[in-house]
Amino acid sequence: MKALVVDDSAVMRRVLIGSLASADITEVDQAADGVEAVKAVEGTEYGLILMDWNMPNMLGIDAVKAIRAAGHKVPIIMVTTEAEKSRVIDALKAGANNYIIKPFEPATIVEKIQDVLAKAGG
Amino acid sequence: MDARTFSQFREFIYQKSGISLRAGKESLVSARMAKRMRALNIDTYKEYLNYVRADATGEELVQMIDAISTNVTSFYRESQHFEVLGSLLSKWYDGGQRRFRIWCAAASSGEEPYTLAITVREALAAGDVNARILATDISTRVLKKCLVGVYDDEKVAPVAPSLRDRYFTMKCEEGRRLCEVKPTLRQLLLFRRLNLSETPFPMKGPLDVIFCRNVMIYFDKVVRARLLAEFRRLLKPGGYLMVGHAESLTGMMSTFQSVQASVYVNVGHRKRHRALNGECER
Questions:
Q1: What is the CATH number of domain B80-266?
Q2: ipTM of model
Q3: What three-state secondary structure class fits A85?
Q4: What's A96's domain CATH number?
């Protein structure tokens, strides 16, 4: 299974790739903004996307909407500092499967990844 | 606690938290560990250390680090930092900035992050502002206190009466006079657990100001250097770092330029040689 990590911060992408590795996901593509993410999803079938919210060119939430509008069912976890309830609801309404608030603990994100994948599989 | 056991604890605590316990801290370590051992009904230090190592949930490790780390804090502790922050926020607001991000890296029981929140509310009273304070700590125990946000009346004494009326609700419980922070302060804050020795941090900034006061004294030079590199990454150019008054970044990283005692500005370049204010590194 291949995952896509979307974040404009290279350090954050590295951290997230580490989290995926802890969840035994080692095949990972990277995108630095929403536009790149939407393009990547057109060409590759991913099993999971970790999506940042605030990015240049296209926000993560808009990328989620575009991915859903194109009919892709890939599970998406929003990784964000936008912790208010209303923002979380916006993300879920847009089509994200789950969200995790930054900064997160290593074990928490691994659990969330496993949880989302289990639900998607079932 | 014998020297060998102490060194085992010291090594383990350093590895897990970055906290560097110097020789001579044996009695502190034995007393604090003995408390945990009583709670768990464990008889020997060795047994306790094995217990922590074997605990896959990491919960006892958190308890252990909680017991070791001291949480000396108060509202408006080292108050000039809040004056500096207030004027910075006003200056940035007047310059057109509307999004403000502050990180309190050692939230402890909440006195510092709530003082930051009062400062933000006072400096940025206008409604068109998007301000947020991230408050982190390694200890889940103190973070729970932050979330509760209720303090004994005398703890809130350093807060000016007018501010106290504005930002706290007074109540009485079992004969104790208590002050509870109002939602207007809570709304600014996000409390999260974070181990400052585990870099890079899962966040990206840009931040305007970081408060990391009286924390680096627990870390050795290696951990401190890693921490400062992360602060540099996360702070915007021209962002500020406040450290404790007894702390100095001398010789650590010239990307931080001293503005006044214990106040540094991120000038955003990487040269890491020059002493900044002539003091000697511990």
A1: 3.40.50.150
A2: 0.90
A3: helix
A4: 3.40.50.2300
